[in-house]
Amino acid sequence: MQGVEASESELRERLTAILRATPPLMRVLSVARHLCLPDWLVFSGAVYQPVFNHLTGRPLDYGIKDYDLGYFDASDLSYEAEDAVIRRVKAAFDEPLRAMVEVRNQARVHLWFETKFREPYGPLSSTAEALERFASATFAVGVRLESDDRLRIEAPFGLADVFALRLCPNPCRRTVGFVRASADVRRRWPEVVVEDQL
């Protein structure tokens, strides 16, 4: 078990180095930190795709469509409260990042997810918990820039699949979105292997 832990620790160090070498992502993380949103993370493609790019020799921000910024505030689940945060975040960025940062209050995802995606989705208790529900274990990586400049990495399924250029379905939550999302990733990174054996 110690070897597995050491391997995951090494992967976290490698991920940290790759992310720190990706200026647009570091800019998003720096601005997000100064906004002091509750329980925030930047997650999904903005985090795992720089690894794909590093491993395949592409520019580190190649193929990144957006920067998903999640936060968790259960004190006000209204659309208006979330919209005020969205506008505040947008105002903090210049283009092109202003158009690329997508902000969502993870405390209210359950209010609209089932209608939009036709899948059940119960309430969350934190932003990190949202990662456990992503379509692929590979997508389930989030990061936050702490006040001491340390990168906090949240990866409930580990980082092995990310560094193996492998897409696997979420082992805890089978979703209809996996096939579509995998195809989208394969269009940009044909080296990625899709393993849908669940």
Considering the chains and any ligands shown, give keywords for the structure:
five-stranded mixed beta sheet, single chain, 9 helices, 13% strand
What does this structure look like?
The chain has 198 residues and is α/β, with parallel strands linked by helices. It is built from nine helices and seven strands. It has helices spanning 2-20, 23-35, 45-56, 79-91, 97-100, 113-117, 127-131, 160-163, 177-188, and strands at 41-43, 67-71, 101-105, 142-145, 151-154, 166-167, 193-194. The strands form two sheets. The chain has a five-stranded mixed β-sheet. A two-stranded parallel ribbon has the order 6-7. The longest helix has 19 residues, at 2-20.
Layout of helices and strands, plus pairs?
Layout: H1 2-20, H2 23-35, E1 41-43, H3 45-56, E2 67-71, H4 79-91, H5 97-100, E3 101-105, H6 113-117, H7 127-131, E4 142-145, E5 151-154, H8 160-163, E6 166-167, H9 177-188, E7 193-194
Parallel strand pairs: 2-3, 6-7
Antiparallel strand pairs: 1-2, 1-4, 4-5
Quick structural gist:
The chain is of the alpha/beta class. It has nine helices and seven strands.
Q: How many individual β-strands?
A: 7
* Terminal CA distance: 24 Å
Unreliable residue stretches: 1-6
Sheet of most strands: 5 strands, mixed
Mean pLDDT over the residues: 93
Strand sequence of the main sheet, in spatial order?
3-2-1-4-5
Which term fits the overall shape?
globular
The number of helices is 9
- SSE succession: HHEHEHHEHHEEHEHE
* Rg over alpha carbons: 16 Å
**What share of the residues lie within helices?**
40-55%
Quote the beta fraction.
5-15%
